[in-house]
Amino acid sequence: MASEIFSLNRLEIKLLLFQLARILGRPMLTEHDTTEKNRGLRIIAEHLSSWVQHIQAKYGDYFRIIVAGYLEAHPDVILNEVASLEAYQSDLAYLKQKVDAGADLIVTQLFYDTDIYLKFVNDCRQIGIKCPLDPRIMPINNYKGFVRMAGFCKTKILSEVSAAFEPIKDNDEAVKAYGIHLGTEMCKKILPHGIKTFHLYSEYGEISIGYINAYAV
User: Fold this and answer.
1) Per the confidence metrics, is the pTM higher than 0.70?
2) How confident is the model at residue 23 (pLDDT cuts 50, 70, 90)?
3) ∠ at Cα 157 (95, 46), nearest 5°?
């Protein structure tokens, strides 16, 4: 069954996932590691809707299936800080395939512009995606980490956010305090639009998440 759906047999799938977990767990990746990681992620991405369909068919509602949603399209198709309309719409169509295959929930890519998130929600609803769309919000704990993650995900950063960081970027405590403020304000802007749950995550930022939970509601 697995080989028919994924063009990979069950052992190959297990080895692929094991290899990815092993590589992604390394603090430093060699050139070979990076090549293998990208190959593995590409195979998973290419067959993801089939994986969702297979899990749903085999296990029913035993698992809750969560898939990713890219607010500005997948980073691979974002060129010069923006994706083409065709690439964005293609990404939305593929997301709908995953939902139609049985996904229960979409968790978005991280973002720092609430208007982009709300537009994404509306665009999803327009094409018939009805499942919850949980916004992924990453509190900012240090400036270098913020720049690294935003660059990796090709996430749009508002000019006012960049301006707020400029005088404090070397002050970790001030950056963390602003990160809490920004995350709180983002949640407050989203809550009135009927969004009931948020995906707050951070590298060693449990305290920041606690403050956002307290201040946003």
Assistant:
1) yes
2) very low
3) 25
